[in-house]
């Protein structure tokens, strides 16, 4: 094993250019200057590269959750998204007259925030809730609570498929109910306090990514090969930080049909001079023996400690488990959700369009679900901003958070 | 000495949910400690051997006996290259290191009084620079906690950086770290002298006896305590006894209490007292002759011992059934030590009129309520003391009738705590009223309301077209099925039953009359029927801290078959049945049923048959009532706090039981 490691290491070093080694020396001097080097650097993640636009057949059936993801991947143009939203919002306006305006407001607000590619969905939800507070004419904490509850319910019912949206709403409501006006002298200060918190949450979400990236650095060792599935901003941040820390590692990207998330990610990684190899989704088992660890993001972390993530994660985790490779999940703590799926069909399916290139006969059914559930026994560790957790601790955190 | 490791310690303080920014001040000067080679040089050698921490942990010190996971964390953390192989190597290495310094016999023979136990571990913990701010949290996030530790142990100059970071964290931690820094600075000065000393120690190590080693450790601890007390560590350093001189051999027992401040001692005593209250009563072992005899003398129920004894289960109470009931029911009015309501419940338990954990528990609590209502404090006696003694008497009577279930044990503990918590200035009627209302609240909140919440949660897991399997009779499961039917879910129920109680028939009857689609089968056919099942719902008698389900015998079999068919197993259990103990098998804690029940097969003329069986010395009947299902066969536990995985039982016990039972 030692020998193997050394061999791959020398091999990798040959691969790496001299230029990078020089940069490494520069970095080291920076390291000496400040311990909080990584945190100080402003996030300058470039916007995702636009790829060819794929025409969609039936936009009505696409879940809003998937739209967000697609928007963040830069697959769809923003005006198309606006159209789709307009289509989705139609049924919502038929709520009772007084509530209609409020609910319309919340969802608008949410969509406004949601369009920013660097902002997570949960954060967008919390920003939208903050807007509710700002707009509300409530004079007591109880009134405000009821109003927020209503807003969160409309948001949640607007898109039932998004886990982080639900989690974000729940988290904020939880926070509001825990912050009683009694702690502050009057209602207004409590209100401003809540707003302040909501603002801060956006920053925290960015910081959470940095924290996770730093925590995971000890797990990426020189000469390792990392298999990545899906396009997760956290995982990208992890790999970016590792590259900045002069780790010598290789990344295998799955293609990620049908959105081509792997292509996008490999694009990003190659910009960072990280050796990348692109795999077919079906080639995971074939190349698993050269993989040292699997890194995935998560759409949601559920109470069992399992994750809900892009379709294919479960099967990669199964392959990795059977070959005794660790599976690491990078997820911010606001993705923790009070859900407990027992099997794959136990969640609201997030449907997406799939292009096969050839015409599919009408009688043939197509599995269009965009994500799957990976049970906790196939995961090794979760990297969160609360620390590196084993799957069973997730429930511990959730119980403390929500009960 | 990896220069990359610096900023890892930043997310050290774990916050849940919303938290304000923990930004280390950017102008913090970075300690210049990257003296080692360039980063690309892979440290393939064992990190423990070349890290300076080896110099700080004196080889004569017994490593602190921490929780296993903590130890693992602390060892795993210093690995700069924590690949899976490196991790394994590290562990192996460490084990080798242990053989020299830690002698398990030593700890066994340790003569220190139990009251100082807590202190020992605490002291040695801080000596290693490992401060548990919150036990569970740190142990849970292992690399996080681990980093803390290694950073501090590593090198004295590093502690400065630590403190700079800590300035942003909360105050308590800062204090701890500040004191740590003092201590480590002192250590840093003595580093030069250390290697020489160490060599000496190593050569002597083989010769030093266990007692001597113990003495050395004790002396070190004493010195540390004194240093802490005086505040100035220099004085402490100078007065510190030289630990590596085995010739000195002080009397540690007498020395230690002198040095330790009385405050900490008092605290240790109170902690110990609390701990004693924490520890649940050990079950009586019925193969212990003297204790059984003693208990018999006090007993109300005259039990005849069963002739049919199974070797492995001698520790469980085993008596003939049924013969004492007429005798007991005849003198129900002549007895005055036992309240008649309690007496009635006891007889009902004995005769098997009340079965099911919830029903038994509620009946018992109602009886206690009645008994408390009729209670008057005798003159010259204290209500708290006397009532507790009375309750104890009732409980032992109930145990004689039938061993208590875990849930009843929890309820009794709740009641006793309520009695203990009674304000002293309360008058007797007030105290009684408050106790009765507390018992009523317990029944309402922890049992009845909890069941309703469980039903609400569990119903979300029943979808249309499902086939649900249940085993035996559980009233919560019955409620769930009926409710799901009520709200219009279309599903089918498979009821699996077993001899000799055939409780499933009761459930079958109730479900069929309500119009549910049912299939009834015996446990022999469970592997056949499991193929068509999509969910398994099970009731519970108790769930232990390690997630082990303690339930009616046969449950484990059903759960294992379900697991083999990858059918999710859902256990429905009220949180008051959770137990903080750990159960590994179903031998230690179980209950023996009537052996005749399995010997006698109904619908068969077996008078002669059973007679030959009775006289056969080579034949014993074992009628176990419970079995234990390991946590890995359980997919989910539905409780009144929501749906949780079996690994989260200790969380519920820790977070919520305290307020009910111990505060």
TrEMBL record, chain A:
Alphabetized, the UniProt keywords read: Cytoplasm, Initiation factor, Protein biosynthesis
Q: What is this protein called?
A: Translation initiation factor eIF2B subunit alpha
Q: Which SUPFAM superfamilies match?
A: NagB/RpiA/CoA transferase-like
Under the heading InterPro entries, the entry gives: eIF2B_alpha/beta/delta, elF-2B_alpha_N, IF-2B-related, IF_2B-like_C, NagB/RpiA_transferase-like
Top-level taxon in the UniProt lineage: Eukaryota
A Pfam family assignment = IF-2B
Q: What family does this chain come from, according to its entry?
A: Belongs to the eIF-2B alpha/beta/delta subunits family.
The listed locations are: Cytoplasm, Cytosol
Q: How does it assemble?
A: Component of the translation initiation factor 2B (eIF2B) complex which is a heterodecamer of two sets of five different subunits: alpha, beta, gamma, delta and epsilon. Subunits alpha, beta and delta comprise a regulatory subcomplex and subunits epsilon and gamma comprise a catalytic subcomplex. Within the complex, the hexameric regulatory complex resides at the center, with the two heterodimeric catalytic subcomplexes bound on opposite sides.
| Gene Ontology MF annotations | translation initiation factor activity
Record-level GO cellular component terms: cytosol
Automatic annotation (TrEMBL), chain B:
Q: Which residues cross the membrane?
A: none
**Which residue ranges have biased composition labelled Basic and acidic residues?**
170-184, 195-216, 230-240, 264-278
- One Pfam entry name: IF-2B
Q: Where is the composition biased (Polar residues)?
A: 109-119, 132-142
Alphabetical list of Gene3D superfamilies matching this protein: Translation initiation factor eif-2b, domain 2
* Record region (Disordered): 1-302
Which residues does UniProt assign to the signal peptide?
Answer: none
Compositional bias (Low complexity) spans?
A: 44-53, 217-229
Protein family: Belongs to the eIF-2B alpha/beta/delta subunits family.
Give the protein's recorded name: Translation initiation factor eIF2B subunit delta
Source species, please?
A: Brassica napus
